[in-house]
């Protein structure tokens, strides 16, 4: 596959006479894909039912005339002001009951069925109009579901829809009462109409109630997306895409992805380092202008799976952004490095956000490839360089990873609902496992728990999984490679009850968790072989082989044959040792990577990335700061 580059363009922000010059410059630079339209509803339909297509027709033609292909966004993340007059109750409501107002974007509640229909209608009209355009490459549906904390809404329409969802799921109110354990604290209901949303309760609401509400909220995103999928597919067979985000876990991306053809995500490494990576201050200082060395790759590997092998970066940070608490500029070389790293993880396309910096409105401090006056910004040259690199690379061929790391969205909701101690976070533990694997120079697939088979993998890791279904347990038991489950994996059934037989109930391992302890960040329990466990510790009673213990002798890692269970959250030193031991036992070829240096192996090439702000010596060679090495095989 030969990857291509593109950019995000807003013709509605610029006078028409600029479009031709812009298109020409994009093409001269070597870009081929232009995403547009995704926020343009008020320009396309200034009054209800009054459509203004001419400007979009012209913009697409101008781009197409330069040989550019268009990714057309449906504008449904930004319903115009008149939409609110039409649907007074369409606004999302936050956990405290505050209504989220018009005046920015994503104000809609996913449960508003009439808005969902209007969104599908505009998507359908666009599809009808542009399906046959020779310049149409694909569709982007909506924009960044979940951005600005918008999946979970406590509105009246959400409440009404939730009751319907519950009725469909449980059939009778007594089945719901049993599933939720409502006999506890006299929470039993007599009928579905009594059930409210689980906010503003006196103390914590029933976790089963919350989890069902989170499942419902995620399903509403799936439904919202599906409505547009159906509307577009009636007219167009071009690929359907959504642009997901970094560390947004409020909806099940796998399920949304099942209805689409390509997954994409919006990669802002510097903003994410500060507000989403969870990095300690020292680490943030060290990678301030480069981003965390594993955060982007984790999402590349996740979204490759969400897209069933087809994925892009739809928005790539090109300079300082405007929205993080602090907004440094990328170190020279990083825009090129991020681009090539995506390519090394088999991205089909990388598009820069945005073509030209906007001198007005919320994002005026957000860099583009051009400055507001159309002169080139510093990153322009790096894109030229990345294009030359891609030219030189030729075909980049996918290789099969030997390690699978299971990540699931329901576990994120479950452990947010019942952390049992601050800091137990399903994303965070998966991210730490991922870092430990990448330190060994390994390729990793981040995969869903219900994937068909793990047979392609020599090592499968399942940390922090809420519910260990019978089918996953059986698949892992028959898997020929090595497995490690835990901590906390399989500790609840799907109703959010403690599993019986008692956890961990991993096939092939005799072991019971007697109790769990959680600690504040200031506490840790030392391990006999070095390092500590922190945050989470399970008291294991087992007859299996004990492979790691606390200094006081209690088992922490146990194993029988291929199957292992980890009953604690190890710190970096201990986790690195444990994962290295497993990788060696699984027969994987490992190469210890220097801090901040990362490797990605493809069938056709090997890539080395130096995320450090200084040169690093690797395999006897100096790699410059923010440097990339690409070796054809
Ligand atoms: C993304 C979003 C874009 C733009 C960008 C700024 O989250 O999709 O529309 O706001 O962030 O970095």
| CATH topology-level name of the domain at 403-585 | Rossmann fold
Q: CATH homologous superfamily of the domain at 403-585, by name?
A: Class I glutamine amidotransferase (GATase) domain
- Note the gap between the termini: 15 Å
Tell me the strand percentage band: 15-25%
Biggest beta sheet summary = 8 strands, parallel, barrel
Arrangement of strands in the largest sheet? 1-2-3-4-5-6-7-8
Bound molecules: beta-D-galactopyranose
Q: Helicity, in percent?
A: 25-40%
SSE diagram, text form:
Elements: E1 4-8, H1 16-29, E2 33-36, H2 41-44, H3 54-65, E3 69-73, H4 81-86, H5 113-130, E4 136-140, H6 156-170, H7 173-180, H8 207-233, E5 240-244, H9 253-258, E6 262-267, H10 269-275, H11 281-286, H12 295-306, E7 311-316, H13 334-344, E8 349-352, H14 379-393, E9 403-406, H15 409-417, H16 426-439, E10 444-447, E11 459-462, H17 470-478, E12 482-485, E13 511-518, E14 525-526, E15 532-542, E16 545-549, E17 555-560, E18 563-566, E19 568-570, H18 572-585, E20 597-601, E21 605-610, E22 616-618, E23 621-623, E24 628-632
Parallel strand pairs: 1-2, 1-8, 2-3, 3-4, 4-5, 5-6, 6-7, 7-8, 9-10, 9-11, 11-12, 12-18
Antiparallel strand pairs: 13-15, 14-15, 15-19, 16-17, 17-18, 20-21, 21-24, 22-23
Helix pairs in contact: 1-3, 5-8, 6-8, 8-15, 13-14, 16-18
């Amino acid at each position: 596959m030969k990857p291509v580059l593109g950019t995000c363009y807003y013709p509605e922000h610029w006078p028409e006479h600029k479009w031709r010059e812009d298109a020409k410059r994009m093409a001269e630079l070597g870009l081929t894909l232009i995403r547009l339209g995704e926020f343009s509803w008020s320009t396309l339909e200034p009054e209800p039912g009054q459509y203004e297509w001419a400007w979009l027709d012209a913009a697409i033609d101008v781009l197409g005339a330069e040989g550019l292909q268009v990714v057309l966004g449906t504008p449904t993340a930004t319903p115009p002001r008149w939409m609110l007059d039409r649907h007074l109750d369409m606004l999302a409501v936050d956990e405290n009951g505050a209504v989220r107002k018009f005046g920015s974007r994503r104000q809609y509640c996913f449960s508003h069925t009439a808005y969902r229909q209007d969104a599908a209608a505009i998507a359908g009209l666009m599809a009808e109009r542009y399906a046959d355009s020779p310049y149409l490459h694909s569709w982007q549906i909506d924009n960044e579901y979940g951005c600005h904390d918008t999946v979970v809404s406590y509105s009246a329409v959400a409440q009404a829809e939730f009751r319907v969802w519950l009725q469909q799921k449980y059939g009778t109110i007594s089945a719901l009462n049993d599933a939720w354990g409502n006999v506890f604290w006299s929470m039993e209901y007599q009928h579905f109409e009594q059930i409210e949303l689980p906010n503003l309760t006196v103390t914590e609401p029933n976790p089963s109630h919350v989890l069902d509400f989170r499942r419902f909220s995620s399903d509403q995103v799936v439904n919202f997306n599906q409505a547009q999928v159906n509307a577009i597919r009636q007219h167009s067979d071009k690929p359907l895409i959504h642009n997901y985000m970094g560390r947004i876990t409020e909806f099940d991306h796998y399920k949304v992805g099942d209805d689409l053809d390509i997954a994409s995500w919006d990669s802002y490494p510097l903003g994410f380092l500060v507000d989403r990576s969870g990095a300690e201050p020292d680490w943030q200082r060290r990678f301030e202008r480069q981003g965390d060395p594993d955060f982007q790759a984790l999402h590349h590997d996740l979204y490759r799976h969400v897209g069933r092998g087809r994925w892009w970066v739809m928005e790539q940070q090109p300079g300082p952004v405007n929205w993080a608490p602090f907004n440094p500029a990328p170190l020279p070389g990083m825009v090129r490095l991020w681009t090539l790293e995506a390519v090394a993880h088999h991205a089909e396309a990388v598009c820069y956000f945005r073509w030209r910096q906007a001198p007005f409105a919320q994002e005026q401090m957000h860099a583009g490839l051009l400055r507001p006056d159309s002169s080139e910004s510093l990153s322009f040259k790096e894109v030229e360089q990345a294009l030359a690199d891609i030219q030189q690379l030729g075909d980049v061929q996918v290789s099969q990873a030997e390690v699978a790391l299971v990540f699931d969205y329901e576990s994120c909701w479950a452990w947010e609902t019942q952390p049992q101690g601050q800091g137990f976070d399903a994303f965070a533990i998966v991210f730490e496992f991922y870092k430990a694997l990448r330190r060994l120079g390994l390729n990793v697939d981040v995969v869903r728990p219900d994937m068909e088979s793990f047979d392609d993998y020599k090592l499968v890791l399942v940390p922090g999984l809420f519910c260990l279904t019978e089918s996953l347990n059986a698949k892992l038991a028959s898997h020929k490679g090595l497995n490690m489950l835990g901590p906390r994996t399989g500790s609840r059934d799907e109703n959010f009850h403690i599993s019986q037989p008692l956890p961990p109930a991993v096939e092939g391992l005799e072991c019971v968790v007697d109790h769990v302890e959680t600690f504040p960040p200031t506490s840790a329990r030392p391990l006999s072989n070095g390092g500590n466990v922190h945050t989470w510790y399970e008291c294991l009673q087992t007859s299996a082989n004990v492979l790691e213990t606390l200094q006081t002798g209690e088992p922490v890692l146990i194993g029988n044959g291929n199957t292992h269970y980890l009953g604690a959250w190890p710190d970096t030193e201990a986790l690195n040792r444990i994962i290295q031991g497993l990788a060696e036992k699984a027969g994987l070829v490992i190469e210890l990577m220097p801090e901040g240096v990362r490797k990605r192996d493809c069938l056709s090439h090997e890539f080395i990335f130096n995320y450090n702000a200084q040169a690093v010596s690797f395999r006897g060679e100096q790699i410059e700061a923010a440097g990339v090495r690409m070796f054809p095989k």
